[in-house]
Amino acid sequence: MKPVMNIDEVELVASSAGNVFADRCGSLSDVIGARQLGYNLTVVAPGKRSSPFHNHHANEEMFFILEGEGTYRYGDAYFSVRPGDVMAAPAGGRETAHHIINTGRHDLKYLSVSTKRTPDVCEYPESDKFQILSSTEENTNQFRYIGRMASSLDYFDGEI
User: Is residue 144 a part of any domain in this protein?
Assistant: First the structure.
């Protein structure tokens, strides 16, 4: 394993959902041997976003804009971003919810870096969903569950 990789060598995989979400994303961390941080390269088409508005309870993220222009939504605020901008997304409650929107006319390319703490709980404030994710070094998605806050059960449900 070589601990050096040029971002031009990252294999990007396309994904989309509806008319809002579309990106091409590739992992660098596994290729270069990272263990405690995750590194991804993401390319978002004009007018699209790569993820729903969300926050993490355990993991912190950082984004570095390489090319293009967009808007970084963080909590209740919106920030214009351009090449060279660095954005933080610390772990926390809904006040740290975030996502990046390509508001420019060309592809928006950015590097994401995140801690790899497990388990992590991710909230989606706009849809009232949550995700629980637990993984090991050998198995990236060992346990993953997505639900809605409204479907919460009583602690003793099904136990007696």
Answer: no
Q: How far is CA 12 from CA 3, 44, 93, 129, in A?
A: 19, 11, 30, 27
> What's the rounded Cα separation, in Å, for the pair 127 and 149?
9
CATH number of 53's domain: 2.60.120.10
Among 116, 98, 111, CA closest to 58: 116
Cβ burial of 66 (10 Å; 0-12, 13-18, 19+) is middle
Q: Is 157 exposed, middle or buried (0-12, 13-18, 19+ CB in 10 A)?
A: exposed
Report pLDDT digits (tens) over 65-124: 999 999 999 999 999 999 999 999 999 999 999 999 999 999 999 999 999 999 999 999
Sorted by sequence, the CB contacts under 8 Å of residue 154 that are 6+ apart come out as none
Domain count within the chain: 1
104 in any annotated domain: yes
**Do residues 123 and 114 make contact, with C-beta atoms less than 8 angstroms apart?**
no
Q: Residue 6 and residue 33: Cα distance in Å, rounded? A: 14
What is the pTM for the complete model shown?
Answer: 0.92
Residue 21, H or E segment: strand 21-27
